[in-house]
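Researcher: Re-running this chain for the archive, since the previous output was lost when a drive failed. Same request as before.
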Amino acid sequence: MIDIAHEIESTQREVGEDRTADGATVRTVRLQRDLDAPIDDVWDAFTSPERIGRWFLPISGDYRLGGRYQFEGNAGGEILECERPRRLRLSERAKRCCERTCPKRDNQLATIVHTPSRQTTRLYYAKSLMRRRIGKFYCRVSAECRSIF
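Model: Regenerated structure tokens:
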């Protein structure tokens, strides 16, 4: 049985602001957690379509630098950086909130960084909203941490 209180307490969370390369301010959700798994196993859980489908959603696409991916019935985007096994940076367009208001642009960035830490792997996940006003609508970001091991 999963100890829900332990799962919640195991993840550090914060919301803040970051700057993009062009100097724009973006709101960012940051999650950090130590996972009881080696770095290569954590990397595989975030990059293998079969494993992603087990803990999140089925995914399809072109899994290479510059390739595009799509979660079934949800967000999709482009692979911007891939430094195995430590760093993965993705653009993302949230399907539900954004198709009618910003269908031609990816408006979120997700960065996943893995760092070996003793016998565990530290997962750092940051999701930034590239906020753009279109009419009176804003696209919004939400993030949640799931236990994947």
